[in-house]
Amino acid sequence: MTDKYPQGHKYDMPDARGHFGPYGGIFVAETLMPAITELNEAYQRYLKDPEFIAELDTDLRDYVGRPSPLYHAQRWSNVLGGAQIYLKREDLNHTGAHKVNNTVGQALLAKRMGKTRIIAETGAGQHGVATATVAARMGLECVVYMGAVDVARQAQNVYRMQLLGAKVVAVESGSKTLKDALNEAMRDWVTNIDNTFYIIGTVAGPHPYPAMVRDFQAVIGREARQQCINQAGRLPDALVACVGGGSNAIGLFYPFIDDQSVKMYGVEAAGDGVETGRHSAPLCAGRPGVLHGNRTYLMADDDGEIIETHSISAGLDYPGVGPEHAWLKDTGRADYVNITDDEALTGFYALTRTEGIIPALESSHALAYTMKLAPTMRKDQIIIVNLSGRGDKDMHTIMQREGKAL
Amino acid sequence: MSRLANKFAELKAAGRKALIPFITAGDPYPEFTVPMLHEMVAAGADIIELGVPFSDPMADGPVIQRASERALTHRVGLRKVLSMAKEFRKKDQTTPLVLMGYLNPIEIMGYEDFANAAQRADVDGVLTVDLPPEEAADCVTLLRERGIDQIFLLAPNSDAERIRKMDAFGSGYLYYVSLKGVTGAGHLNTADVKQKLELIRANTHLPVGVGFGVKDAETAKTVANLADGVVVGSALISKIEANLENPEQAKHEIIALLKSMRTAMDS
């Protein structure tokens, strides 16, 4: 995979111990250390193994449906009256989001490592579905942990996972959402370490997860970079992606990091507004701390307890963020901004009505920020927006907001 | 010599093993904790592990998770726990007190501020579940400068190399988590523990406490025959949870359990 990076690639984070400057690292209980060492060795070995890469590329092409198109949204660009907007269509992947790029990769790794059981955490259910999908395809036992609150509000995805043969465990501890599902998955892993592979869905967790998930998602940015050169004859001026844990954003950003002319905007969920405290924007309004195995920006109170988050999109409803984003923020290489629930809905309707594409609520945050950014740019400039998922899963939420019954 | 090193030396000379109870600070309510600590010492505890409540206790089973949740409803966090430690020390200047919890509260307070506060509270040791030796250098140095021991966990799958790492970074004692899993789970396999302790002892001179799976006088005695210290946590907290309407009853049952363990360990 490394041989596919652009020529003259200089950015080389993380270091051997998984640090992005002060962020990242391995902060886990001792029982997990041998498993993490084993995983890291497998990751280092197979991501340089031509046979593994060939199998992964075949799966991404024939099973996921890659490459995903880079679509010039001309009508929407004209309406906004500024930069030309290109959408990276991750919504067209099998299972409807970018999540499957990573689960296909990690499942291949699990198979190489001889693991027979797959576990995962999920918030909205997209990562859970993508995991259950690859587990079904490979005939692996699959258990997905999901907060009880999310189980109730994402019933359709719960059923999809069950159809695929996964066992969905409703987590009743803590705030009963994504962070608690992650805690419970970690507890399962500690207990069943010998036969179990934990597929983390985002660029968080202990090293090597942030780097490994990024490497599996970087196919987004590699394709987008080449497609932009082919279609527009040059590199884009800006990239925009939503950031919860941050896997779709890092997947788009990473292959462009050394292209200094390309600006990067990560869009966090401001919920009711950052000033209300009801949000999920640790990079914009949090502070550095340690959670789920890595040091990064978090939403925590003065005692270090994790604060409950809020967002209209379950996929962004997480109190931490991938450590590489923390590093890109501190170094100024990427800018992190935020979009409220109401603004995200504006983005949702805009794309639906002008381009005939119904986006996921997560991706709608990136679209809403693009509506602010594009008019400030010239018509010959280019923005690539990561359309990380399709909106079918959000129909229920949208109808509720509109006061309609499903 | 630290209070912990002193205590283990004293016990060794007397041919006894350390009884190390764990409770979560602030469970079921803040005023319960310090009197309970004194009563545990009176019942035969040699060292106290005091849990710092955390919103996301990833390595703990349901019993200790719920203890954390109960304490957090009273907003008992790290600063409050430090003030409890200080209060405990007013009446007891000899029993070593170890704070056990997760790293984030310490990160948010700042390592140096925490080390200073722990020193002012006369805390003897700190056990941070999610701080492996690879990441611990800064914290260990600050604590060591202030005479505070950093206690590390060992797991069934820790090999000789890792044990030596803990030996290099840790002091006071090492805490062997005797089964793969979370706190409060499963049961003790004596043969496995015995075998593992041989490997541990071959790679460290630090005293070794064993926890996870210690439930009653019998398991306490079994562990005492193998290790230098016996850690009991979930079994005590279960007493609190079973008597939320009657905390005095919980106190009686905790004292009775500790006394029975003490008697069995000393016989």
Automatic annotation (TrEMBL), chain A:
Domain Tryptophan synthase beta chain-like PALP, residue spans: 65-389
GO (cellular component) term, any one: cytoplasm
GO molecular function, one term: tryptophan synthase activity
Catalytic activity: (1S,2R)-1-C-(indol-3-yl)glycerol 3-phosphate + L-serine = D-glyceraldehyde 3-phosphate + L-tryptophan + H2O
N6-(pyridoxal phosphate)lysine: modified positions: 99
Keywords of the record: Amino-acid biosynthesis, Aromatic amino acid biosynthesis, Lyase, Pyridoxal phosphate, Tryptophan biosynthesis
Source organism, top-level taxon: Bacteria
Cofactor: pyridoxal 5'-phosphate
Pathway field: Amino-acid biosynthesis; L-tryptophan biosynthesis; L-tryptophan from chorismate: step 5/5
Gene3D superfamilies listed in its UniProt record: 3.40.50.1100
EC number: 4.2.1.20
Subunit structure: Tetramer of two alpha and two beta chains.
NCBIfam families: trpB (TIGR00263)
UniProt similarity note: Belongs to the TrpB family.
Function of the molecule: The beta subunit is responsible for the synthesis of L-tryptophan from indole and L-serine.
Name of the featured protein: Tryptophan synthase beta chain
The species this protein was found in: Methylomonas lenta
Automatic annotation (TrEMBL), chain B:
Matches recorded under InterPro entries: Aldolase_TIM, RibuloseP-bd_barrel, Trp_synthase_alpha_AS, Trp_synthase_suA
Catalytic activity: (1S,2R)-1-C-(indol-3-yl)glycerol 3-phosphate + L-serine = D-glyceraldehyde 3-phosphate + L-tryptophan + H2O
Enzyme class: lyase
Keywords assigned by UniProt, alphabetized: Amino-acid biosynthesis, Aromatic amino acid biosynthesis, Lyase, Tryptophan biosynthesis
One Pfam assignment: Trp_syntA
Cellular component terms (Gene Ontology): cytosol
Catalytic site positions: 49 (proton acceptor), 60 (proton acceptor)
Pathway named in the protein's UniProt entry: Amino-acid biosynthesis; L-tryptophan biosynthesis; L-tryptophan from chorismate: step 5/5
GO MF, one example: tryptophan synthase activity
Entry's EC annotation: 4.2.1.20
Reported function: The alpha subunit is responsible for the aldol cleavage of indoleglycerol phosphate to indole and glyceraldehyde 3-phosphate.
Family: Belongs to the TrpA family.
NCBIfam families in the cross-refs: trpA
Quaternary structure and interacting proteins, as annotated: Tetramer of two alpha and two beta chains.
Name under which the protein is recorded: Tryptophan synthase alpha chain
